[in-house]
Records
---
Amino acid sequence: MSLLNNEMLAQCQPFSCGDADLDDFFCNDTDNYSRQLLGKSYCYRFKDDSSVIVCAFTLAYSSVDVRHLPNSRRKKITELIPHEKNLSSYPAILVCRMGVSKDFRGKGIGTELLYFIKQWFLASDTKGGCRYVTVDAYNNEATRRYYIANGFKDAFSTEQQEKEYLGMPPEKELKTRLMYFDLMLLSSKV
């Protein structure tokens, strides 16, 4: 794994995951995002040719704020947390951006990458607590199916519920859906 920044990109072949917004971010915005302390970007390169970026991702610390969630949602998200540990928000890592090179699609790399991220934040050498992995997943069937297949759950049971939480008008399109994975499902501390 390597930091993804302009210096790295200059040494590599152009990266494209096939999504114009993600491609633009990974090729043009990672340094600025890092300078602004909004997140750090990383990549994995092809073992046989280090100039080829196989996948890229950006992470940021976040939280799952349960204060304003409907009761049923709050209970679902915090079901594995002992009652004496009830907080108003819980530490999380946000997968801000993630893309697999279109040349390497269909090989399970995205699933391996999510598994790596989950394990990375379970490691005892991480600098802070991290209970959840969250993502604002593109609101389309293929993306949502991918995250569900990797153990993620919707933070809200309906789009309407999420729009209300975000203060969005009902007629406005919801471009992403908040999803989460509880790391305690992988922890030996359950």
---
Amino acid sequence: MPDSHPTGGRRGTHGPQGVGVLGAMAIGIGGMVGGGIFAVLGTAVELAGGATPLSFALAGSIALLTAHSYARLSATHPSAGGTVSFLDRAFGADLWTGTINLLLWFSYLVTIALYASAFGAYGARLWTPHPSPLLHHALISAAIVLPVAINLLNAEFVSRTEIYIVVAKLLVLLVVAIAGTQSIDPARLGVGTWPDLPRVLTGGMIIFVAYEGFELIANAGEDARDPKRSLPPAFYASVLFVIALYVALSAVTVGSLPLEEIDAASEYALAAAARPALGPAGFTMVGVAALLSTFSAVNATIYGNGRLAYVLAKEGELPELFERRVWNRPVGAVLATGFLALLLANLLDVTQIAIIASAGFLMIFTAVNLSAWKLARSIRMHPALALLSAFASGSALILLVVHTSRDNPIALVLIAFSWCGCLIGEAVYQRVSGREFTVGDDPPTMPDSR
């Protein structure tokens, strides 16, 4: 949700009463059910086959463990800075936290590419049954260029339209999940259709990016009505709701279509899954919802990520160029975000993008869980549970890396390159610029762009 972007939202936008449980839940659900499910469902089925619902449940269980760490951190140390603030509070502002913060910005950048890729796939298929690569890439590019322009010219468009799009896409997905139960063939979900356990586990880790949005609830800490009472239940309820939704949608997809048909429609699998129960109208309905959802997700993520870059620049972790504003907007940060996302979306396939994004967020969540462990006494969390959460997300990351090294070595090289780039870039920038890390109780926020 735009008002709770990764930098900490615009203060006061929720009125004098502040954000309650339902408002915080809406932020979490809107952040998770963005473009991820439209983009990665086919990728998960390719790996996990009939066990795809189990893969989504396993990924969701790791998200739920990490959500508990976020819930305790947010309740005790409410801050518009969210993840950035928790890491800085636990470990101090240094090269380590600077690198993870930079990785957070990069990982959101990769999710923009993921959403744009899904927009291109669904849009091209709605346009014609046999789209050309040129049309596909033109739509991908449009899905990034237009939101960049919107963010530079009229950023308030993001917050004015987002709530309606979130409601519309949830209604469509619930219709597909409920109506699709009529066309499920239980034999397609049977244990006999499951691959070996490592592929089931890996399927869940590759699509983990579909769950990352719950962390945006933490950015509502400053605007929460009562952080101790409203934020923890919002974390738990939003993640549990999305787990149930994703498991249902994946069961409908795998149970309604032969695996070879899902493979053929991998990039728009959810629309194909709606056809058996709802006919051609169902395919079109899901396709339109996917276009609205992914475009909205690109728009909101550019909005938030541009401001995250601004905050990191103010803390001395990115060049001063990212601090520059025109019309009270972070123009340099928005343009850099859009340009890099444009390159990733057009040069990589959706599986590689999903792997890079999921690996980034698993690393970030491991760091946040370790922050919860370090601050366990002050946030009233059992240290063993914090370590278990860190172990779960860290183990998932290792599993994903091992699988990627065998099946997609190019993606592994890209992960290593981007992570090393964050580390080396942060170290070199600090040495060359002479700027020092600075951090307070809360990172600086962007002024209103209205």
---
Amino acid sequence: MAHSPSLWGGRFKAPLSEAALRFSSSIDLDKALYQEDIRGSIAHVEMLAACRIITAEEARRIRKGLKEILAEIEAGTLSLSWEKEDIHMAIEQRLIQKVGAMGGKLHTGRSRNDQVALDERLYLRTAITELKKLVTQFQRVLLYKSEKYFGTIMPGYTHLQRAQPVYLSHHLLAYVSMLERDHERLADCYKRVNRLPLGAAAMAGTSFPIDRALVARKLGFDAVLENSIDAVSDRDHIIEVTAVCSGIMMHLSRMAEELVLWSSQEFDFARTDDAYTTGSSIMPQKKNPDMAELTRGKVGRVYGDLMNILTLMKGLPLAYNRDMQEDKHPMFDAVNTTRECLFIMTHVFVHTTFRKDRFSEELKNDFLTATEIADYLVKAGVPFRDAHSITGRIVGYCIEHSLPLSGLTLRDLHKFSPKFSEDLFHLLDPQNSIDHKRSAGSTAPNEVKKQIVHWTRVLRHKNRI
């Protein structure tokens, strides 16, 4: 079955078949860009009038028609079905219905190639701003928890094995630092997103005396893309944003994994309110950290989006190719998934408490301060490798005799080295071990306080984006 002629059908003797149109239609996905498409079209038509390519009256009527179409779409009274091919054609067809043949002048000096490139950049600008705000909100929650639990000591881990005592605040602030780099990456890629492609037309520019700089100013772009072929043929700005989203999701997944572990009975370090957990359909005792697990699972989707767009672009010759229509799914999915996960994980952490009593229990009868013994020997003049070996033998002795480090006597220690004195025992207490740290950025109380002050200053501004 053939379909009715489209706006591009003049060269063709037969209309596109329904099967081909259904296969090639993108409106189910790109209709999400209707606001960006209309905004770009309004700036374009105003520029056409300013350059006297169309009359001021024509621009006024076209602009009015576009605003009416915007209202119709938002009210749900304008059908955006698959027959319309894409959002650009749907809006232009409706405009011609409203203002007559004059509506066809809207497309003067542009192509769908530069039009869609513009829409995507407008969308990504908004998305980046929203993601930055969500990152900042999450950082503030983690900072609040760091202040609330300041002084709480927990076992620090490497290889998921207990390593050294650290402040819980120090642990949480590590994620604040990670998220700050995500925030910086979002801000940095915004610079490359915020360049205007419109005016490149299909790929060679246009013979009309358009003013691309005027459109850039109207739409708030920092610059105009210099090369018309590049403007319509590359999607590295989508790749870059998707890569940043992948980094954010990786950090969220690590947090989620820790929350899953810490919520287990085996750890029992953290408890999340019922409103952000679920139960079992068969086991009534269960309380599952599903929000964290779903976040951990969704990271695979965003990684997939990145591989999707990278693979899509890897073999395309210049300039535009219809393959690039497929760029929207990974772009939308990466942004939406990252947005949702940032939002939910922020709320999960707001409604999570950390158990000081459990941390305290796990600090007893362990070897978390063994490094203090090695450092003590080094300060007494023993080479570090020898000190490390001696300390390892001491730990082995404790395991063999079921002793904690605090259960050792000076006589026991002298079996391994005459360098030990009574002052060592003070350092085997977790709090004293933390207090003894001297390096910048360490878990020492003053250093953690410095971090809290630093992040309070950075995140102070209510509208920081």
